[in-house]
Amino acid sequence: MAKKFGIFFTLFCILSTSCLGDWNILSQHKTNSGLKISLKNYCESWRMNVELHNIRDYVVVPQECVAYIGKYMTSTQYKVDSERTINECILYLSTNCILENDGKDAWIFDIDDTLLSSVPYYKKNGFGGNKLNVTSLEDWMSQGKGTAVEHSLKLFNHLKGLGVKIFLVSSRREHLRSATVDNLVKVDFYGWNSLILRDQEDECKNAQTFKAEIRSKLISQGYRIVGIIGDQWSSIEGLPSAKRSFKLPNPMYYVA
Ligand SMILES: *[C@@H]1O[C@H](CO)[C@@H](O)[C@H](O)[C@H]1NC(C)=O
Prior knowledge:
By secondary structure, this protein is an alpha/beta fold. It has one domain (46-247): 3-Layer(aba) Sandwich (Rossmann fold). 47% of the residues lie in helices and 14% in strands. The strands form three sheets. It has a five-stranded parallel beta sheet with strand order 7-6-3-8-9, sandwiched between helices. α4 (76-95) packs parallel to α7. It is globular and about 60 Å long. Residues 4-19 have low confidence and may be disordered. Bound molecules: 2-acetamido-2-deoxy-beta-D-glucopyranose. The site of 2-acetamido-2-deoxy-beta-D-glucopyranose has 4 residues, from α6.
């Protein structure tokens, strides 16, 4: 009986895989209004609406879009999109941003997928298609193998040159501090003012609350947060806000 069920289950898996494959074979599907679309149309619209923050709180990337998201995260398009974000930050600094140069101009960076890329980790872990395993992600982080997110170093060094104080605010936990510092320095990020991680009392707060409280503290210390950049809405949303917020693309996971 168990064997029979096993065979049935295998057959079911083969059939359901080929159903997903239908997207590729037919390359066609219909939206609610009856518009004929390809799988690429479907997944591109999913990704766009994630970035627009219309789609929220997803636990995993929809199974049928995992291959598309993997392709995007390793594509030239992702690099171009990220470079554009960084260039817009630099443009803002040279046009609409007034620095007072009194040592109180501040900029906040998120770390993961803003300075350090976790694409190497997600490449081996289903590109957001698998439920997050904190143990394995933290294991990977503790090895300090994150690569630099291309172009972010340009902004980081530009801010250093302008004399803006740099704050790194991350949901990484305190026990990852030395691995995080080593990793950042290894890929040429150094000279920040402060690295703020989550300690035990912050663990029950969601990322948005934790990060808003940090901004509030910095402001009470007299800093003017002229800009903030992160790959998650939770890194930049909530009050008090920075004078301007910049969002890097990242459809692989959602942090509330
Ligand atoms: C999570 O990752 C750890 C370390 O890699 C592994 O031992 C564990 O089995 C994983 N848990 C799940 C639910 O996959």
